[in-house]
Amino acid sequence: MSFSVRRVIQNPVAHAVVLLLLGGLWSRGASEPIRWYRTLQQAAAAAQEANKPIMIEFWAEWCAPCKVMDAEVYTDSSVAAAVEQKLIPLRVHFDNEKALVRHYNVEAIPFLVFTSSYGTELLHHRGLLGAGELAAVIRALPADVSDFNRWDRVLQKDSGNVDALENMASRLRAAGLYQSSNEFYEKAVKLDSVKKNSALRQALLGEMGLNFLDLRDGKKAASIFERCIKESPNTRERPIFLLGLGRAYALIKKKDDARKMLNAVISEFPNSQSAEEARKLLPEL
């Protein structure tokens, strides 16, 4: 199962979107186990009140996999229970809600988007999901997104707020949403104020590198750590960068380079935690 993540900040003054937010709940039969909201406005209001994330499903009547999910996934008791406990469900018609389709960059359905209470995307999945898979994803989401919502509100007023970007990124990382975390870190390191603060920039880049390691993307992790070491060879973060680069090289099967970096950590910083981790990794290469 492959997930990708991107960040979308809702624009509350976009009139084209607001016009699509009028309406109520889906009414699709008394036996329907999931009671879907029909508008983002109502779903967001309910989510904000409960500090819950939103699950947005893009669907259409002509979509065969959507019918499978209706018949086999959303009727599953474990999925219905997870939805009831953890989030606010919103169903959006792919053909009729083009502003939202563009807003979330939906190219094919079924398409699920998991967001903060304000509609800021945290995670998305394209294609059919089994009941067990979807229930597992929902259970893995934070049950309380009040921290995300707090910093989200700041960013909606000031998209270049460094503290908010860093806090969103760190909380997403803690939740295991590594790619989404990097979206926020990347925006932060591009700010002029961060570019002028070398220590902060290096710290944020290092967190990005760690996220790529957790994503098992050795190539991107290596690129980040190589840049960190080149730009600031004497930074106090150097042992972390050397260790990260060694791990990244190991992921992309550059074992000689990996050993070189790990040995450099041990040689330059023998009593550090990074050196201890390097010693554990070396025998595996």
Care to describe what's here?
It is a single chain. Strand 3 (111-115) and strand 4 (121-126) form a beta hairpin. It is elongated, with a radius of gyration of 22 Å. It has 15 helices and 4 strands. The chain starts with 14 loop residues before the first helix and ends with a helix. Strands 2-1-3-4 form a 4-stranded mixed sheet, with helices on both faces. With 285 residues, the chain is an alpha+beta fold. It has 2 domains: 15-147, Glutaredoxin; 178-284, Serine Threonine Protein Phosphatase 5, Tetratricopeptide repeat (Alpha Horseshoe), CATH 1.25.40.
Flag low-confidence runs: 1-31
Span from first to last CA? 28 Å
Number of DSSP strand runs: 4
How many domains, as an integer?
A: 2
Radius of gyration: 22 Å
Highlighted features:
Glutaredoxin, 2 domains, alpha+beta, 4-stranded mixed β-sheet, Serine Threonine Protein Phosphatase 5, Tetratricopeptide repeat
Write the layout of secondary structure elements.
Layout: H1 15-18, H2 40-50, E1 54-59, H3 64-73, H4 77-86, E2 88-93, H5 98-103, E3 111-115, E4 121-126, H6 131-140, H7 146-157, H8 162-174, H9 178-189, H10 192-195, H11 198-214, H12 218-231, H13 238-251, H14 255-268, H15 273-281
Parallel strand pairs: 1-2
Antiparallel strand pairs: 1-3, 3-4
